[in-house]
Amino acid sequence: MTDCIFCKIAHGEIPCRKLYEDGEMLAFHDINPVAPVHFMLIPKLHLASLAEAEDAHAALLGRMLVLSPRLAREQGLENGFRTVINTGKGGGQEVFHLHIHIIGGGNIPPMVRRS
Ligand code: 5GP
Ligand code: ZN
Q1: Per residue in 50-94, pLDDT tens?
Q2: Does 99 participate in catalysis according to the annotation?
Q3: Which domains does the chain have, with CATH numbers?
Q4: How many Å apart are CA 47 and CA 4, to the nearest integer?
Q5: Residue located nearest, by CA, to atom 21 of ligand 1
Q6: C-alpha–C-alpha distance, residues 51 and 7, integer Å
Q7: Which of 2, 43, 50, 77 could in theory staple to 104 by disulfide, Cβ–Cβ 3.0 to 4.6 A?
């Protein structure tokens, strides 16, 4: 995906504040954090969103979820954290390369405000 920002980050073509990398995934700090700790975990494989995930991706997605608490702890989030995956325009997704937001520290408000 030549014009995908996160593919470019994964290939080292755009700099990022990396906090984890292995052969199949990469974690880096969000450029515009919403909390004291806010980073993203992405697969190196270009998958536009969770809506494009298939059975073949299940193991990779599982490994990403299992890695998340370890990375959160390493960033000092001993008390817990929020994971968010925005999917599609209806889910508020802005970058169309699947990513898990990992957010914590400070005051984390309720996920959805009730009126
Ligand atoms: P989405 O709304 O798609 O779930 O979230 C996209 C996130 O990517 C946003 O929180 C935004 O701040 C972050 N982001 C967008 N462009 C860049 C970038 O070039 N570098 C980094 N580190 N984060 C980015
Ligand atoms: Zn991509």
Answers
A1: 999 999 999 999 999 999 999 999 999 999 999 999 999 999 999
A2: yes
A3: 5-104 (3.30.428.10)
A4: 10
A5: 31
A6: 18
A7: 77
